[in-house]
Design brief:
heterodimer, A: 155 residues, alpha+beta, elongated, B: 1016 residues, eight-stranded antiparallel sheet, globular
Amino acid sequence: MTDAAAPDLIYSVDRAGDPVVIIERKTEAGSETALETYPGLITGEYTTELARLVNHFAREFQYEVIDDPAAFQTAYMEQVAAEDPDANWQQGNPRLRDFGKPDFAQITVPQMDGKHLVFYAKSRQLGVPYRVDVDVNGTEIGEATYEPMAMQPIE
Amino acid sequence: MSDTTVVDPQSVAQRLQVIKTELSGFETFFADPVHASDAATAQLDRLRAKIGQIESLLNARAPAETAAAGGDGASAPLSEDPGICAAPEDEEAAICQISDEFGAFWGQVCLPSESDQAISDERAAIAAQRERIGQMYASGPLTPERLVEIGAELARLGNLVRTAQQIAALEENSPEAATEARQAMTGFDEELGPGTIVTPELIAQFEAEKAVAEAAETTAQEHMAAAEALPDGPEKDAALDAAMQEMMQATVDRESAESRIQAARGKQMLTSAITTGPLSPYARRPIADQSAAQFIEAYTRNPDLADFAVGAARDSANPDAIAAGMDMLCTNVAGGFPDDSGTTPPAPFDAQGYAQNLINGASAEGGDYMADAADYIRDGGHLQQNPIPDGTGRDANGRERARSNYLADAAIGADGTLDVTSPAAQKALGHLRFNPDVVDEPTASLNAHVMSTYDMLSEPDNQTRAQGILNDIEEPQGAGRTLVARSSGAAAADVDADDTRQAVVAALMTPVHQGNVGSCFATAGVRRMSTLEPLESMEFYAELAETGTFRPRNRLDPIPAVMSFPADENPLIRSMEYSAATVMTQMEENSRHDMLQNALNESVDNLIGPVGDDGAIFSAIGTDNWHVDQALIRATLIRSFMVEYDATRRTAPSADGSSSSGVYMLIQTEGPGARRVIDSQSVFVAALTERVLFAIGEPAGTDKAKEISDTIQSQDYLDDLMSRGMTPWNMGGGGMPQEADEILFGDEQETDELLDGRDGWDDFTGVTQGDRTEELLENMLESFHEDHQGDGMVPIMNRGIHAFNGLPDHPSLAPLMQGDIEDNIEAQLLAPGREIAASQLTEAEVLTACRATIDSIKSWDPSGRRRTMLENAIGNGVGADLTPQQVDTAIMAALQPYLTTLCLDQANVWRQQEIAAGRACTTADRDAHAASIRPQWEERISGGSVGGIAAAAAPPTVTVADTNWGDATQDVMFVMAPDPRTGELQLWKQYNPPGNLVPMGEDWVDAGWTEHGAEE
């Protein structure tokens, strides 16, 4: 495997429900093996894939990494426009209007600053963006923090 | 009697009636053991026999006399009756003889004064009246006219005696009240004449006299003005003097009439109160002696206010607190509510209305409310008009927000110090509790919470912690800025840290109630925290306000604060509640998703693994790389489905309508069926087949694809899947209060059963609702007693319907938990319930039941036309001396026309909507719709009737839980009390204030009940 090899990863869970990654559709493995297999993940060549890997092992499928901020913004505002502005909050049916909108300009593609990875992820259940901070030291992934972005009301 | 006297039979009959009335008075008097004697009984028997004989004679002769008089009969002579009289003309003499015997009777036995409990003044008045009647009997021949006069005096005497009896009946349990009542009645009679019977006609006569006097005052003023206009001189002086005399006389007459009106109304109202009303010895909820005495004294000074207060006390949990203020209120109403300097509120000021509002305040708050009110009035707080900006003229939520903001402003000093003991904070509290404009639009629940918060913050440790929370607050960010702005009313761009602190303290001052959405599973926890751990709530409020983020305490990820809720609701409380509910739903959805995924994982493993290896049983795929295929399928499936909670769907109907059960649904999120609801087995099979083939890259139509499809469709496969505890197309319902409490309090929760649902494993054949309610109460009490004493609140869930908080320390439960709980329930609730069910309600009680029924229905039916129907149907009662069940039957029968109109009106609205939506809808459709909705409306009306009967029958109640419902004006509790119709135990909701009961639907006790708490 070379540094330039593009990661071929499929994110799944094992029989016990714990997160695993399938490497090149052949090998079921943990995050450390994936990072060892694809050094480009931590050298900055595949930061977005690294974010997906970190996100998967941190929260499995609760969040989706935002890899196209512009597309995210467009989809977000389209969904807002489709929501009834007069509807009440309803349990189990979260609307983006319940939370407002973020400062989309702050949302970037995943970025590594030294050993510190920052990426933005969308909550699959709520649809709102989170900022994720995590240290990746070699093949060791630190504890990721998921903080919702500051929101402004949607008028 | 002369031989030529022609006796008018009508006159004889009238006189006989007088004598019968007289006899009736004697019978009533001597029915009381205090007055009874053998001599009196013998004399009564003899007189009764004589009267009966005369009456029979008159009845027997009437037809013959009518015939003899040619059909006229008005002047026909009575024939001889040897049994009583020697000649017809002696009939009248015979009656007179009986009257004489009555006179003698009075003198002989009617007043056994030594045993009479009447005090000397009372006894003297009776003796004087008796003497007066004796003199009337002795003063000459008893003409018909004189008999009528004597009859009137006898009626007064009877009234004096009855009053003495009524007061004597109070004596045993309420000696102080009895003494006060004697003094009051004596005072009334001094004004009205001894034994005066107050009738509406008499009061109308006094009112007319007052009107005449007022007219005379007006005339005198005109005369005065005319006299003033005269040229100076003797003529003017004389005219002025005459006008002054005229004015003085008119004023005296008016004041005299007013005094008589007050005395008459006081006597009338007090008599009613002590005989059949709340102050009587037969009252279903007795009022303490000292308090009763205070109320009775008030009847002599302000009868209307006293009667209002007694009415409020009857239903209040705090009657003594009301009574304690009656002297102060009567004095102030008479004086116009002056402060220490003598200044009174500027006109127009409704002193009587203000006093009534203070009575309501005391009823709701209890304690030293009236003493504090007196201080407030002396200090002149009541002179300030509308002291709370925007605190009046708004709905309950609006008032609550304005008032809590005002209190927060007052509690936080200019230097940022939170001090509820400061003069400003205390003054603000005074305005909230007592200001005339504020109490005219009361907020009892808010007030109670504020009082509790003031008490809490008066503790130095609590104040220190609260101050620390405030000091840590910085300028708000994100959604926090919006929440603070909505709290303060300022623009979001302008709010700062001070506004944030004010918003946090305002939320701290605000009670938590469930909003108009089905969020009870979170509300119960938020309300419990606000009640038991208010400073923990304050931490949440501060976090929300400053950061715009809600942070679960069980280490789940924070979420952005929910900002979507109706205006005027407290933004921080509502955001906390809805945010917690959002996380709670996420948590449960994830949990169910995990369960589903685990079940699918196992079944998929069985689907694609080789037979006999690794547990596989189907081997539809059987690839060489099967373990990777399994992982690929798992990866696809876990992304392809989500569990979502739909609060609008119900798994079971709820008659109350106050809560939402909600169901979980599986939604496909990826593939050709994205956003499809998996709501049937066939949909699931199709979705799973497509997703499995997609995951392993197998095109549709191949033999392998067909084999996979056939296997997934097979009953064996589906049975295997469902045996793992999951039916994907039916994810189940229910609430998540345990999850909510983990989110709010951080502790993992464990659940215990209180009552198995009717849909559970046990056989409930033949088990009545009363049996189940009794078992529920017993189980709750055992749990409260053994595990939760001192806990304040215990989270309880009525499965699929509602989550709320049990009240293990409620004072009403303590007597049930001393000794054997089952025996206590029988003695304190069930036995009294059976007694009530077997008893008869008096006319006054039936009227109370009807009025309460009307009030209950009016609370949800705004139609003026239909309200008139209600009034006409039962506004004047439905009878007297009826059992509670009979009253219910009579009320429901009388309300059938109202029910028909209500259903038809509703159906007409429905028809208009159908037509507006472009759907054909005939009048026959409308009528069918009206018939279909009739049962539900009838059930609601029946609830009003049963609650109304409970208001009259006053069954014993115990408060078991706080419902979360209500608003700034009232809290709603769950209470247990016997159904007055059957005596069986019933679950009710009670609105406090005013304390009225509404029965809960059967589904509430059909459902299972659980409690939960932190794992140990």
